[in-house]
Amino acid sequence: MKIKKILIANRGEIARRIIRTCTKMAIETIAIYADPDEPLPYVREASTSVHLPGTSSTNTYLDGQKIIRIAQDQGADAIHPGYGFLSENAEFAKAVEDSGLIFIGPSPESIEAMGHKIRAKKLALAANVPLIPGNTSPVQSLDQALSEAQSIGYPVLLKAAAGGGGKGMRTIRSDKEMKEMYDRVKSEAKSSFGDEEVFIEKYLEDPKHVEIQLFGDQQGNYVHLFERDCSIQRRHQKVIEEAPCATIRSSTRQKMGKAAIRLAQEVGYFSSGTVEFLMDRDQNFYFLEMNTRLQVEHPVTELITGTDLVKWQILVAEGKPLPRSQDELRIDGHAIELRLYAEDYLDNFSPSPGRIDHMRFPEDPSIRLDMGFEAGQEVTLYFDPMIGKIIGHAEDRERCIRKMQEWLKKTLVTGIDTTIPFGQYVLSSPDFQSGDYAITYYADLEQEDL
Ligand code: ADP
């Protein structure tokens, strides 16, 4: 079925980015917006915009029933959830389908299967995808936690099975710490994710976070669009991503891509998905989790493969086969993304809300800007403080780094603190330039006391 009108159940840069593809495909769009988001460009750029009164996520972008009702009233035939909010909510995906609309994403069953970290690990095991040493069942008591941790060997990570967004995990280095933290992690899991189930896995000391972008269609075809290195993180959340990974061997890439596809096949997955791995210095890689949506960092993959992944999502949702086969996909050059957050990185990346007084970006066709805000607009504390993303593309990694550095030098954002100075620091640091950096990059910087 041809999709003619899409409701975008999201805000900011991703809503705008989805509108861009829809416009190219001559698809009408319906934006929804909470009170503080009324001035944002996506509201004006959509074919129609509908106000969702309120300032909290629960009353607005998380109110699935209200959103479905708006979609029906406005004559939409599909809903694109973007990332975050309802994008990995299996109940919402099911409710969209039950209301006769198309959910632009995987099936509710796939979302459900991968949304729970223990269940996902079991599927990975069945698909012969290597796991981080640990257990594939929840821990039921402190005694069990202690004996599992001893047999795995400290340090371990105590993780919420229903966790996400870098939250609900704690590194534990001794029996003493386990005794202190066990109840606390469980109750945090319960209050943040409504599920107190926790499990234990080995804490890997300095791996890279490398993830495979994959795509499936409803005919059972699969491709992978290579990897992204997302090791530059703070609070277990990504800030800078690049594709391809600077240090991965092509044999590892192939193995990782095949492992990701095996996992997708295990659940009959279709649409965009990302299989995340931790990769150690010997290039052994271990399954972390699968994200059943479009990732924030998808543009680096688009730039090195010359694809439009939102377009692919829409085509697959219409029941069409994948636009390209594995043989038709090649890596073209190098891409780096810097997430532009309204945050003060010298104060541990604390939010820096306020009015963006000036925002001056030099014109450069090789720098892609996915921006959710314009100068004069206000970044509030109600929602995520991401203003947008800056993505550079060049023939090779060295040139890409240099281009981003030169571009950032001529950039001006005033009124709020942003991650631009952090980006400049990282791009000029020898560890990043060598490509041989790990997820501990920022924690190590903190130790050096910037
Ligand atoms: P979330 O679902 O909250 O994003 P993930 O399981 O994907 O959580 O992990 C997020 C980040 O936490 C990873 O990219 C990595 O930096 C760190 N991490 C997770 N598990 C481990 C582990 N076993 N060892 C070391 N770091 C880990």
From TrEMBL:
<protein>
    <submittedName>
        <fullName>ATP-grasp domain-containing protein</fullName>
    </submittedName>
</protein>
<dbReference type="InterPro" id="IPR005482">
    <property type="entry name" value="Biotin_COase_C"/>
</dbReference>
<dbReference type="InterPro" id="IPR005481">
    <property type="entry name" value="BC-like_N"/>
</dbReference>
<dbReference type="GO" id="GO:0016874">
    <property type="term" value="F:ligase activity"/>
</dbReference>
<dbReference type="InterPro" id="IPR011054">
    <property type="entry name" value="Rudment_hybrid_motif"/>
</dbReference>
<dbReference type="Pfam" id="PF02785">
    <property type="entry name" value="Biotin_carb_C"/>
</dbReference>
<keyword id="KW-0067">ATP-binding</keyword>
<dbReference type="Pfam" id="PF02786">
    <property type="entry name" value="CPSase_L_D2"/>
</dbReference>
<dbReference type="GO" id="GO:0046872">
    <property type="term" value="F:metal ion binding"/>
</dbReference>
<keyword id="KW-0436">Ligase</keyword>
<dbReference type="Pfam" id="PF00289">
    <property type="entry name" value="Biotin_carb_N"/>
</dbReference>
<dbReference type="InterPro" id="IPR005479">
    <property type="entry name" value="CPAse_ATP-bd"/>
</dbReference>
<dbReference type="InterPro" id="IPR011764">
    <property type="entry name" value="Biotin_carboxylation_dom"/>
</dbReference>
<feature type="domain" description="ATP-grasp">
    <location>
        <begin position="121"/>
        <end position="318"/>
    </location>
</feature>
<dbReference type="InterPro" id="IPR011761">
    <property type="entry name" value="ATP-grasp"/>
</dbReference>
<keyword id="KW-0547">Nucleotide-binding</keyword>
<dbReference type="InterPro" id="IPR050856">
    <property type="entry name" value="Biotin_carboxylase_complex"/>
</dbReference>
<dbReference type="GO" id="GO:0005524">
    <property type="term" value="F:ATP binding"/>
</dbReference>
<dbReference type="InterPro" id="IPR016185">
    <property type="entry name" value="PreATP-grasp_dom_sf"/>
</dbReference>
<keyword id="KW-0092">Biotin</keyword>
<feature type="domain" description="Biotin carboxylation">
    <location>
        <begin position="2"/>
        <end position="447"/>
    </location>
</feature>
